Amino acid sequence: MAAELHVALVAADREVWSGEATLVVARTTSGDIGVMPGHQPLLGVLESGPVTIRTSDGGTVVAAVHGGFISFADNKLSLLAEIAELSDEIDVHRAERKLEQAKAEGDAHAERRADVRLRAAAGR
Amino acid sequence: MGAQLRVYKRRIRSVTATKKITKAMEMIAASRVVKAQRKVAASTPYAQELTRAVTAVGTGSNTKHPLTTEADSPTRAAVLLLTSDRGLAGAFNSNAIKAAEQLTERLEREGRQVDTYIVGRRGLAHYNFRERKVVESFAGFTDEPTYADAKKVAAPLIEAIEKDTAEGGVDELHIVYTEFVSMMTQTAVDSRLLPLSLEEVAAESGAKDEILPLYDFEPSAEDVLDALLPRYVESRIYNALLQSAASKHAATRRAMKSATDNAGELINTLSRLANAARQAEITQEISEIVGGASALADANAGSDN
After folding, report:
1. CB–CB of B213 and A73 under 8 A?
2. How many structural domains does chain A have?
3. What pTM does this model have?
4. Where is the composition biased (Basic and acidic residues) (chain A) (predicted)?
5. Do A68 and A118 fall within a single domain?
6. Nearest-CA residue of chain B relative to A30?
7. Residues of B in contact with A7 (CB under 8 A)
8. What is the ipTM, given to two decimal places?
9. Structural domain for A107, as ranges
10. Residue A61 β-bridge partners
């Protein structure tokens, strides 16, 4: 059996996803980081961006994460985010609409949020 | 029907209507408590992980941060009081307000100036009526608070604590809320959010004896702490808001239950009084008839002779 790590993706008001994985890729403020089992203990600040989790049964879980933290110790990885959505929870049409709206209003923050959602949805 | 009886009947009708209303409110509150409790439980994993992370950074690095270091002589403190928007919850709001007033008094005795922040219309009305100064107040979400609401409440507080005391910032942040112990027990508690005492945080997360690994900080310990602490405050305020909401619904349920019980008792008493009045009326009518009949008999007997 390949080595695996336990992942918990937690949003402020619920646990979004948890399970075993072999690789997690997330975007921190200083660049993308990939965590595999046995990684050295890590605590980092996340940028808003898609998070990719390669589960131990070979599947892939993609989630859009808006700000938060990644922490890894004892083969347990937690992704903490104020807002986190799995790619299949994302309403693509709504995100597209929001992107248009944000572009029209020049709201860079909202534009980025919608963009991250769309990219996560495309990666599923 | 006699006047007395009519009055009783009318009162019974009105109390019955009130009883129906309080019964409905009781049931609504009961279902909301369950929902609120579920939300408290759902927010726990995030709070726990965050607390762990804060402990990890606090103990794993020698970083000094304004949010974790105590001022030598604190001169100003912020108190955040959580009340509800609506009443009909027994002593729920007055207990929270009382706890806040005790805390304020204690802080003032220790020579600190207190800035009050209030959540909920009830608390605000209490302070406004007494013409006490409130720095900022929030309302409209106490029944079902969301994380966005907690962020909104936390923003000015974090801003105030980051500012220098000389420029109107605060040294300490206290929060007063009603802890949801059980369906029957809710207690108003106050706790100090900032500056953070790491021992307390560790004790709370149950990680006191756990040896935390040496973390690699990305990008750096200071930056992580900078990003972490505001989130920690937000999550604590969110948790307090949720507990306060659950407590409020539990208190409403209890208050409405006793109101329903009282109404039932009142209806019983009133029906007994109404029965007695009806009986008295009948007795009076009979005695009037008997009296009239015997008067007639007497009169007839007199004329016969």
Report:
1. yes
2. 2
3. 0.83
4. 99-118
5. no
6. B219
7. none
8. 0.76
9. 91-122
10. A53
Long-range contact set of residues B266-269: C-beta below 8 Å, sequence gap at least 24? B266/B15, B267/B12, B267/B15, B267/B16, B267/B19
The tens digit of pLDDT for each residue in B48-82 reads: 888 888 877 777 666 667 667 776 777 888 999 99
Distances (CA, A) of B224 to A24, B54, B166: 20, 9, 27
Q: What distance in Å separates residue B180's CA from the closest CA in chain A?
A: 18
* Whether residues A95 and A82 fall in one domain: no
CB B113 within 8 A of CB B207: no
pLDDT band at A96 (very low <50, low <70, confident <90, very high): confident
Tokens of B64: 């000094």
**Alpha-carbon span B63 to A17, nearest angstrom:** 32
| Beta-carbon separation of A42 and B215 below 8 A | yes
Do B225 and B57 form a contact (C-beta atoms < 8 A)? yes
Residues of A in contact with B228 (CB under 8 A): 45, 69
pLDDT attached to residue B161: 81
Q: Are residues A37 and A98 in the same domain?
A: no
Arithmetic mean of pLDDT over chain B:
86
